[in-house]
UniProtKB/TrEMBL annotation:
<keyword id="KW-0328">Glycosyltransferase</keyword>
<dbReference type="InterPro" id="IPR029057">
    <property type="entry name" value="PRTase-like"/>
</dbReference>
<dbReference type="InterPro" id="IPR050408">
    <property type="entry name" value="HGPRT"/>
</dbReference>
<feature type="domain" description="Phosphoribosyltransferase">
    <location>
        <begin position="26"/>
        <end position="171"/>
    </location>
</feature>
<protein>
    <submittedName>
        <fullName>Hypoxanthine-guanine phosphoribosyltransferase</fullName>
        <ecNumber>2.4.2.8</ecNumber>
    </submittedName>
</protein>
<dbReference type="GO" id="GO:0016757">
    <property type="term" value="F:glycosyltransferase activity"/>
</dbReference>
<keyword id="KW-0808">Transferase</keyword>
<dbReference type="Pfam" id="PF00156">
    <property type="entry name" value="Pribosyltran"/>
</dbReference>
<dbReference type="InterPro" id="IPR000836">
    <property type="entry name" value="PRTase_dom"/>
</dbReference>
Length: 212
């Protein structure tokens, strides 16, 4: 079983293409840090933001970014998943909800990727419903999907083409969150879409045919 995992993980990466180098990744994180520092480091700033990393994908982004922030902050995480081990999004599932009282506070939400935007739109709305005064969305990457999204990030590290990527916290079927750069997975290595459930068409006879 473990052999299978290793072989499958390696095969996926063998056919993948690096589209963002580790240096470019670090520059993107630096950019997000610079914008946040500019926003909160001013001497007259009295806001003590609650920074929430969206687990699991944001774990690497969060761990890289936090030591680059130079203002007082409180950190915690929330855990939300929409893709599970799949390469297509489904329902937003909350695994850990915000534990602090967010009412009246400025919240900075950190996530690895803004793709269709469903996850972060949902997270932002929930925080606002809980009384947050302000929700700032900072993403490592924003994917150019060629259509409108339900949310726009306030701070973006870099923009990606419309392809499924892994690395820097992002996984394919659970693999390769640990890569320091971003890799595009070959399209044919992604699972085909689930076929629509097909229901048998009932054999309806016209009335009066004498059948059935
Ligand atoms: O913009 P969307 O289309 O909603 O997709 C973005 C979300 O997808 C990923 O999470 P995922 O559900 O894969 O869980 P993970 O963080 O555990 O990988 C990623 O971390 C974002 O939270
Ligand atoms: N790994 C990964 N997770 C995602 N979640 C939403 N989009 C993506 C993506 O391109 N790659």
């Amino acid at each position: 079983m473990q052999d299978f995992q290793v072989v499958r993980a390696r095969a996926l990466l063998e056919h993948a293409r690096e589209i963002v180098t580790p240096d470019q990744v670090q520059a993107a994180v630096r950019h997000v840090a610079d914008v946040l520092n500019e926003r909160f480091r001013q001497p007259d700033n009295t806001t003590y933001p609650l920074v929430l990393g969206v687990m699991g994908g944001a774990v690497v982004f969060t761990g890289t970014l936090l030591p680059q922030l130079d203002f007082p902050l409180e950190f915690d995480y929330i855990h939300v998943s929409r893709y599970g081990d799949d390469d297509r999004g489904g329902q937003v599932v909350w695994k850990v909800i915000p534990r602090q009282n967010v009412a009246g506070r400025t919240i900075v939400v950190l996530d690895d990727i803004l793709d269709e935007g469903e996850t972060l739109a949902h997270v932002k709305q929930r925080l606002l419903d809980m009384g947050a005064a302000e929700v700032i969305i900072a993403v490592f990457a924003d994917k150019d999907i060629g259509r409108r999204k339900p949310i726009v990030a306030d701070i973006t590290g870099l923009t990606l083409p419309n392809a499924f990527v892994v690395g820097f916290g992002m996984d394919v079927y659970g693999y390769w969150r640990n890569l320091p750069g971003l890799w595009q997975i070959r399209q044919q290595d992604l699972k085909p879409a689930e076929p629509e459930t097909e229901y048998p068409i009932p054999d309806v006879k016209a009335p009066g045919t004498g059948l059935g």
